[in-house]
Every structure is written in structure tokens, then in C-alpha cells.
């Protein structure tokens, strides 16, 4: 198999997003924020979201992680900005199904660039890398107080 | 070695397979080792012929199971040169062993203002139990610094260990940096200040001769599965005088002498600590692993790994953009080698190596404070064992270079 199979995982657009991530940094005004870690590999993401009038006005992420997790975070921010939180939730659902890879006819158009991460399904050890940013978004938008779990460290073990 | 390398490899059927269409090169031995036929067959033999509960039956199978279980304890005693089997407790593994010391000995002797001294290179299992004990008791947790090349700084150790220190707990071999820490010198230092010495042997027992009387450590913790044995079995060695003073951690069957309605008394050592049905098959499997290692000889195991390190470390250091952690002198480095390709996350590197059939670990290696100390989020780690070859080392080097080229030149 060798490294040629890596082309399915590391598509050029993924390498580009990782090298030059979009919406990387911090926001002036934040309504929802969260820090999430992937304790098995040490990846960490801080996600800041500005939701005004039921719309994701702006979003930014920072932290450390591998190519897949950084590209996924960058693509996620591109995809959800300008959408309602409800639409963003739907994207999270579609993304989660896509990276599991058990629905061959899944429509992934709403994910924009992030749909190229479908290749991660063939690399089970890397699914959690792709999922981290999307789980962070989900938790930031849906925690009970509506403000995300700011400052809280949420660990998830899914490998 | 008594056996040739080919003969040894034939004892490990799992090594003979393809992974991602490439011949498997297993270099994740610091996480867990593979098991020889002799260990798997010992488990099967126990379950097929001798299975019964230990220490309580009067029938023949129970006698055989008890004899096999206690024979395994004697094998462990001889392997580490403990004075007596009363000093050998079976546990679930290194983590349980260290937690027992903190929960029983630590709980009893540590008070407010006392000091517990560890190092930045400790695995979480030799760090968090002490950290939590210190928090419970309002004691002070202190860290011995490291030298620039990743050795324990013994000058700093002499300053950190004071008359307030009650416990010094250090890994004999780092699971990241591949350095060997001077347990004997640390034990001497600890004893001079009235403290006890806890050695984490998870990475040393599999790879080198260890003699608890020579080291003069008060406790030694290790795991079976990192030294050819099954998962779920480990050992806590403790000096008899200290174990006698320690209260049991768990209560129940197997560990009691007499039980009355409102009070009970405990069995003698080592059973006072072994409540409930133990991992009988695990202990027997560990005994078989010790037989296997002893037949080869731990000095030979250590020499073989050193030969591999002498061979591979210069090749790794010669790869542009590859950072190797710990000492760069092969003579000071065990078969655990952590590294990073500059500009590439170790997780991406490990996936590349996996596609080339080379299994390594990537992550923080349960040593987050060390990662912070090294100022890296994570590293890749290759760890060699007695069945690895120079060809395996070449495959690792080639796969790192290929992965580096792949990410340098981009993709479709």
C-alpha cells in the first residue's frame, strides 16, 4: 500500500488549509467559546464564536494539532460562518456521518471544502483528529447556558 | 543470545504478517510488547487443565492452581532478587502498584508540609497519585530538574530532597527520553534524609537486569504486558518491614484471617493486600514470560537493544529536519527513541509510517508535564525489543524519509 494511499487522506486542499488556516486567531466579541482536548494525542482547540441575531457572525480558532485537525478546523469555520446555529448543527451531524463512512450516498454539499475530509473514514485512527473542531462547535453552541463551556476542559475518548 | 534472532522471531507469530500490504515492523514495545507462544500456551494450559480458584479449595485442581500461582510469585521474586515472596504483591499493573503505595503508605506517613519528590520525566501513573496525595495532605510536590540532554540533574536532586522529604518516586527508565535514572544513588540520597525510594520499573524490568537489593529501593512497580506477559497483571515489590506496617487498600475475600461481626484481622504478607480472586492466569502468564526472558538472559536482551540503538540512532540523527529527544550518545540511550519531523505533527508522521507497515506511538506518552518541559505538544516514539532487527531499524529510517518527502512535495 505504502504512502500512495496517503493521498486519499492528505489532499492538497487539506494541506493548504493546514498550512494557511482560515479564521485562525481570536475575536473581539465572543458569545460562545470552548476549549477541547484530544487527550490521546495532545491536540487542543480553542474555539470562539460570535452569534448575533441567530447568525454566526464570526468564528475563530487557535490551539495545536496535526494536519488533519487544523485543516478540519479551518474548513469548519469557512463552512459555518454566516449560517444559523441550527444550520451549523446540521453540518456537524452531516460531518460526523461522513467521517464514519458508512453512508456512501450521503449528501455532503453543505460542508463545502470540508467534504474532502471524507477520506479520513479509511483511517480509523485519525477520525478523532478530524472530529475535534466539529465537536467543539457542537458543544460551544449547545451547552445549557447557551454560552458554551467556557474555560472548561472537555475530554473525549473515542478511539 | 542462546537463541538466534530468527528463532526468537519464530516464537512471536504476530510479527509474521502484513500491515497495509507491507511486512509489519512493530516498534511500539514501550506501550506493550508482543507475546511469545510459550506465554499464550501457558495461559491455555492453565485454563485447559488446572483452572480453579486459589487458596481456598481442598480439591486437586484448586491445589494445582494455587501451586502454579505461587510458583509464578517465586519466579518474580527470583527475577528481581527480592529477599522473600512475602515482598512480591500481584497487582493489575504499574499504575495500580503506584496507586497502592500512595493510598496506603502515602496516606499513612504524609502530613501537611511534608515533601514528595518526583521528576519532570515521570509517566502520569508516577505523577498523578503523588500530586493527588499532596493535595489531600497539603504536602509539597517537588520536581527534580533535567540536564539539557535529558538526564536527571543529580545536583538538583541533592537540593530538592531534604529532611522534609518523605517519598522520592522516580522512573528507572524514561518512557520518552530513553535515559536510565540512577535509582541506587537516589535511594541513598532519600535514605540519608529519612525518606523512602519508589522506583517505577515499567520501562526497566523488560529491558535490563534489575536487582532490588542492589538498588536498595523500598518499592518497585512494574507491569507484565510490557515484558512479554499478558495484560492485567503487574507487580508491587516492597520491603517486608514497610509492607508489614501498611494497612490493606482493599478488603474482602482472600485477604482476611478471621472475620468477626465488628472487627477482622488480615492474612500475613503478601496475601493481606490481595483481596478477591486474583488474576491467576495473568500471574501464570507472567511467570512464563519471566522463564522466556531468563532463558535468553536479561544482560543479552539489554545488549541486543543497545546494539540496535548504536545502529539506528546515528541514522536518525542524520535525517535533516528530524529532532531526536534525549541523549544523542547511543551509549546513554535505551531502545526508547522519541522524535519529531520539524513542521509535521507526529500524528501525521505516525500515519505515514503505518502506511509503510511501521508501528510507532504518537502523542504525549502519558507524560504531559514532560511535553511541556520539552516545549512540544507531542512526539513520535519508536521503541525496540528483543525480537527487533537491524532490518526493522532500516525500515523505520526509510519510512521516516519517505514520509518527509511526501509532505514536502505535496500531493494530489
TrEMBL record, chain B:
Tell me, what is an example of a GO biological process annotation in this record?
cysteine metabolic process
Q: Write the protein's name.
A: Cysteine desulfurase
The record's function comment reads:
Catalyzes the removal of elemental sulfur and selenium atoms from L-cysteine, L-cystine, L-selenocysteine, and L-selenocystine to produce L-alanine.
Family matches, as InterPro entries = Aminotrans_V_dom (IPR000192), Aminotrans_V_PyrdxlP_BS (IPR020578), Cys_dSase_SufS (IPR010970), Cysteine_dSase (IPR016454), PyrdxlP-dep_Trfase (IPR015424), PyrdxlP-dep_Trfase_major (IPR015421), PyrdxlP-dep_Trfase_small (IPR015422)
What Pfam family is a match for this entry? Answer: Aminotran_5
| EC number(s) per entry | 2.8.1.7
Top EC class, one word: transferase
Gene Ontology molecular function terms on file: cysteine desulfurase activity; pyridoxal phosphate binding
Provenance organism: Loigolactobacillus backii
List, separated by semicolons, the cofactors it needs: pyridoxal 5'-phosphate
**Which reaction is recorded as catalysed by this protein?**
(sulfur carrier)-H + L-cysteine = (sulfur carrier)-SH + L-alanine
Q: Which UniProt keywords apply?
A: Pyridoxal phosphate, Transferase
* Family membership noted in the UniProt record: Belongs to the class-V pyridoxal-phosphate-dependent aminotransferase family. Csd subfamily.
Q: Kindly give the PROSITE patterns that the UniProt entry links to this protein.
A: AA_TRANSFER_CLASS_5
